[in-house]
Amino acid sequence: MSTEKRNALGKGLSALLNDSPNVNPNKNSYSNPSNPVSELDSLGSVNEIKISEIEVNPFQPRTEFDEQALADLSASIKLQGLIQPITVRRVNSHSYQLISGERRLRASKMAGLKQIPAYVRTANDQQMLEMALIENIQRENLNAIEVALSFQRMIDECSLKQEELGDRVSKNRSTVTNYLRLLKLPPTIQASIRDGGISMGHAKALLAVEDPTVQLYIHQQIIKNELSVRKVEEMVREIQKAPVKKEGKQPETLSYQLQKVEDDLASKFSTKVKLKVNSQGNGSIEIPFLSEDDLGRILEMLDW
């Protein structure tokens, strides 16, 4: 492996920002907004660009921005100006597309700025996506689910393997894998991770359980009883020790209507309900429980 290639690994965003070979590398001062600059002159430099000419990044992975934090940044920009330029790519002579810095762009608008300092780069759509994702991930201001979704997008849309992705974001493969596994959890649990209801440690413990119904039950107990990560790990170990019931003769295949009844009951009781019906129409309903507390919850729902 050449020295040049080794040095490129792990650089993340900076390794992706490849400007035109015609750019003057020593040109780092702000361009005068009153004097129009050519495309070649503006590439790689910091230029004052009209905010009205900047389009938001369609590949932005962040979905939420803290309004109070934006207001604080806006107040700082009013007082001292924007210290760190945003990064854009040129669309045409009077239009740019944001690559990174949407928070700074929003705060600058709130501050009433008409122009903003910006690096002008060249980038195709794939590079745009990579830059936006990597810039946010490296700033560590995404929640765990947003990071996981960002990783998955880079794999799907940029055709990266997990090891290549790890090089891009300066994380080892096991870390990348742990984030991606979060997307296998039920949507309710993913939402709880996103909103800060449970931690990454809780989520990793839940991933040791294969049954989504059991995952949801443990998640419910975490929220209800404010369980620590260690307590959840102990609960998972106890559940895994429980003997697995071996099935004898396979029950009759349920009709669509009965399958729907089974699904509705499972949803109602937040546990895996088993509906058994034989060829004569006789049968039973099994509602498993994982602890005495869980049994009490089910009995309460049955008005027992």
From TrEMBL:
It comes from the Bacteria. InterPro entries: Chromosome_partition/occlusion (IPR050336), HTH_ParB/Spo0J (IPR041468), ParB/RepB/Spo0J (IPR004437), ParB/Sulfiredoxin_sf (IPR036086), ParB_dimer_C (IPR057240), ParB_N (IPR003115). Belongs to the ParB family. Residues 47-137 form the ParB-like N-terminal domain. It holds the Pfam family ParB_N. This is ParB/RepB/Spo0J family partition protein. Keywords: Chromosome partition, DNA-binding. The keyword DNA-binding applies. PANTHER family: CHROMOSOME-PARTITIONING PROTEIN PARB-RELATED. Coiled coil: none annotated. Residues 1-39 are annotated as: Disordered. Residues 20-38 have a biased composition (Low complexity).
